[in-house]
Amino acid sequence: TTMDYSTNDSKSTSKNKVVAVVGGGLVGALNACYFAKRGFQVEVFESREDIRQAKIVKGRSINLALSHRGRQALKQVGMEDTIVSKGIPMHSRMIHSLNGTQSPIPYGKKGQYILSVDRANLNKELLSAAETYSTTKLNFAHKLLNWSTETGAMTFLRADGTKEEIQADLIVGCDGAFSAIRKQFLRQSRFNFSQTYIPHGYLELTMPPINGEFAMKPNYLHIWPRNTFMMIALPNLDKTFTCTLFMPFDEFENVTTGDQVIEFFQKYFPDTIPLIGADALKRDYFRLPAQAMVSVKCSPYHLSDKCVLMGDAAHAVVPFYGQGMNAGFEDCLVFNEIMDQLNEDFSAVLPEYTRVRVPDDHAIADLAMYNYVEMRSHVNSKWFLFRKYVDNTLHMIMPRTVIPLYTMVTFTRTRYHEAVKRWHWQDKVINQGLLCVAASVVGGSYLLVRYPPNMPNISIEQLWTRLQALKSPF
Length: 474
Ligand code: FAD
Ligand code: EGU
Known about the structure:
It is found in: Mitochondrion outer membrane. Its EC number is 1.14.13.9. One of its GO terms (biological process) is L-tryptophan catabolic process. Its main location: mitochondrion. This protein is an alpha/beta fold. A hairpin with a 5-residue loop joins strand 6 and strand 7. It contains 15 helices and 20 strands. It is globular and about 100 Å long. The strands form four sheets. The protein has a seven-stranded mixed β-sheet with strand order 7-6-15-16-17-14-18. The protein has a six-stranded mixed β-sheet with strand order 9-3-2-13-20-19. Strands 1-12-11-10 form a four-stranded mixed β-sheet, with no helix packed on it. It is 41% helix and 23% strand. The longest helix has 35 residues. Bound molecules: flavin-adenine dinucleotide (FAD) and ligand EGU. The site of ligand EGU has 20 residues, from strand 4, strand 15, strand 16, helix 11 and helix 13. Ligand EGU binds next to strand 4, strand 15, strand 16, helix 11 and helix 13.
């Protein structure tokens, strides 16, 4: 069957233009809300079945950290309160040392926090929100096979094995890190693309409640930094924690039996064994193979006035800044701002979106990769505590001059590439400050040695008596 939803009338308004959103994940579902709100006819195509009907959901990670950028994007379509009310605030990180000591480090000032949100619930809420617009249609079990850059026709494979060809005025590729929409971009001249798998994999484990209560303090992002190995735990509404273990694939291969799992945890995360439960640990560790993590960068994000990439399809980032979804949500917000500025003229909006957004998405991809390298090379709990302490202290002393990088990234909408620039500038200022101090000490000592002041030649005892005299009130 062939369906042509597109309009050939160039003067047609958003009212009768069709936008095809490919991918009904987090970014696709949010994008559907944005385009529907503007008055477009929206067709969402998602390869999976409707997750709102499915009994078991196969997610990548059960929860995610939602921060300012993501919240601002949700707010614009009236979804912030719904999502925030089901999120668990995390005001601080809780650093777990090898000896079991727990040290909290606040994320920011009082009242500044990030939220642990359930991925499946977030996706469901956004799909339902998109569906409240009468102009939106959700097409599940529609897998995009290919599309034509000449005609814009998309070919979908349906659950029953039949194929369907569909056209639209605009194709929005939100089909994730392994985007099928992006395949056609790769065939274009002057399209840049890079993809890097990191040597680490991740595994998710559930920490159940104890006596109906959270097994650890709930309003924290729990972190076990162990150089090459790292674990992170975020709280869920059902009083469980989802723990994510990061380690090199080589190391995963070295742990093949239940006893080896316990031995490994005994060595690196001993405090978690009783909390997860030794038996559950032995079982859950092997439930799924370790998952890979990929970083994808490309540019441009658009192809003529026909197609645009957003979310992981445009920029998959490694999860070491908690920004993948937040950046994808901000993509939707930025696109919407440009639609306002340029009167929904796709031939102007798409290139402008690429111009504005590529430097920022590339910056967060680089930052996340940088943090991955830093964490795995030398970040143990002491180093982590020290670094955050220095960051926070400098910010306290010079609140306008020194703003920690994670603060700009997590709690502001400072453009990612501006945040990086500012960070480099701050580093220079701090280093020059330290250099000044060091230079004064060295220079001062030299001058003291070279030109010793004329001091009366008195004994230590005499000096002590005089000092005592200074202290006395009379
Ligand atoms: P996806 O969520 O991958 O959705 C893509 C959708 O497209 C899917 O529904 C898929 O079924 C569909 N699809 C795929 N191919 C086709 C096709 N051919 N036809 C039709 N549909 C198709 N981000 C944060 O902000 N905070 C965090 O704390 C955080 N933690 C993370 C932890 C881990 C371990 C990982 C791996 C990622 C984390 N992220 C986090 C990143 C976040 O998960 C992603 O950035 C986000 O899911 C991207 O959303 P998306 O909609 O672009 O892609
Ligand atoms: C990784 C996996 C602590 C969820 C980066 C911090 C993450 C998250 C940090 C995952 C870390 C690392 C930051 C936030 C967040 C920290 C951040 C990482 C959520 C620099 C579900 N990271 N993450 N940085 O500052 O800015 O606390 O799986 F361990 S939230 Cl790797 Cl703010």
